[in-house]
Specification:
alpha/beta; Quinone Oxidoreductase, Chain A, domain 1; Rossmann fold; 2 domains; 7-stranded mixed sheet; 6-stranded parallel sheet; 10 helices; globular; binds zinc ion
Length: about 350
């Protein structure tokens, strides 16, 4: 039985997290439209993008939207048309909600750049709720036998981290520098290590440095420390523009820096010789394609990463975001709707 109403959180007044931008509300359970499915949420992991949306660093696309785009749940209803998915299937709902499929970017396999793309928890209500709708062609099938809280962080932290790793052009057996070590970084580091990389982690959090060492990083240091060897590739996970020149200066000749985040504070002026010359590259990462998502979830199924999670009851979503803002989350914060945690 699907109830008429559900519990949800909405971004009521975008602003600093201390001002209480999130509001706990009752909403009607949404109806799946044509080609959509209705998903009952088991768990939703918290992404830094949720914080950017809540604090207004990313402008709202519509008022009072439910955030959350790392959702594990079960399909409980299908809209009109063929969805190819049966009620009862376990699926993941991620950030990329829909793309046009017609534009020059979609045609060349770069649907992440589609100007008409829409996003879960930004253009449509997300997973800080008991139910959400998703476009059937954009959900990922998930295994039944893995706890929801271990799967949820894979859906953005994992997938976007994977795209960032691809964008960083890490050579086989190369040296990878990771700046910032939260939810996405700790998953990406494990994939890089399996690929035979040597991993260097720069982060201000002592707990995160301990986790990095535990996971197999060769060297850990403070946020702006210089790694002991020049890097072939680096990924900037911290949303801190001041770290761009720091990371570029740490690159070897021909090295690449990928900026993983959707939001970055301003980058200070660069010096061509110190930061870019000798064919160093600076790249951004914009969302992901479904192919990236499928590829990462296959890797994660073949070699399940250790997922460091901090569990929050559904009622404590605002606390989870406050803790993320205050750097108090080690790994991934996960909201659980059910008592599976
Ligand atoms: Zn398109
Ligand atoms: Zn995200």
């Amino acid at each position: 039985m699907i109830p008429a109403e559900m519990d949800a959180w909405v971004v009521a007044r975008p602003g600093p997290i201390a001002t209480g931008p999130l509001e706990r509300v009752r909403l009607p359970v949404p109806q799946p439209g044509p080609g959509e499915v209705l998903v009952e949420v088991e768990a939703c992991a918290v992404c830094r993008t949720d914080l950017h949306l809540t604090e207004g660093e990313l402008p709202p696309h519509r008022p009072r939207t439910v955030p959350g785009h790392q959702v594990v749940g079960r399909i409980v209803a299908c809209g009109e048309g063929r969805t190819g998915l049966a009620p009862g299937s376990r699926v993941g709902v991620a950030w990329l909600r829909w793309t046009c499929g017609q534009c020059r970017y979609c045609h060349r396999g770069a649907e992440n750049l589609c100007p008409w793309s829409t996003y879960t928890g930004w253009d449509a209500d997300g997973g800080y709720a008991d139910y959400l709708t998703a476009v059937a062609n954009y959900v990922y099938p998930l295994p039944d036998d893995v706890p929801a809280e271990r799967l949820a962080p894979l859906l953005c932290a994992g997938i976007i981290g994977h795209r960032a790793l691809l964008r960083s052009d890490l050579p086989p057996g190369g040296r990878l520098g990771i700046y910032g070590f939260g939810s996405s970084a700790h998953l990406t580091a494990q994939v890089a290590l399996w690929m035979g990389a040597t991993v260097y982690v720069m982060t201000r959090s002592e707990k995160a440095r301990a986790l990095a060492t535990e996971l197999g990083a060769t060297w850990v240091g403070g946020a702006t420390d210089t790694p002991p060897e020049p890097l072939d590739s680096a990924i900037l996970f911290a949303p801190v523009g001041e770290l761009v020149p720091v990371a570029l200066a740490a690159l070897d000749r021909g090295g690449t820096l990928a900026v993983a985040g959707i939001h970055l504070s301003d980058i200070p002026s660069l010096n061509y010789d110190a930061h870019l010359f000798r064919e160093r590259s600076l790249r951004s990462v914009t969302a992901n394609t479904r192919a990236d998502g499928r590829e990462f979830l296959e890797i994660a199924a073949a070699r399940p990463p250790r997922v460091a999670t901090v569990a929050y009851p559904f009622d404590a979503a605002d606390q989870a975001l406050r803790d993320l803002a205050g750097d108090r989350v080690e790994g991934s914060a996960v909201l659980s709707t059910f008592s599976s945690l």
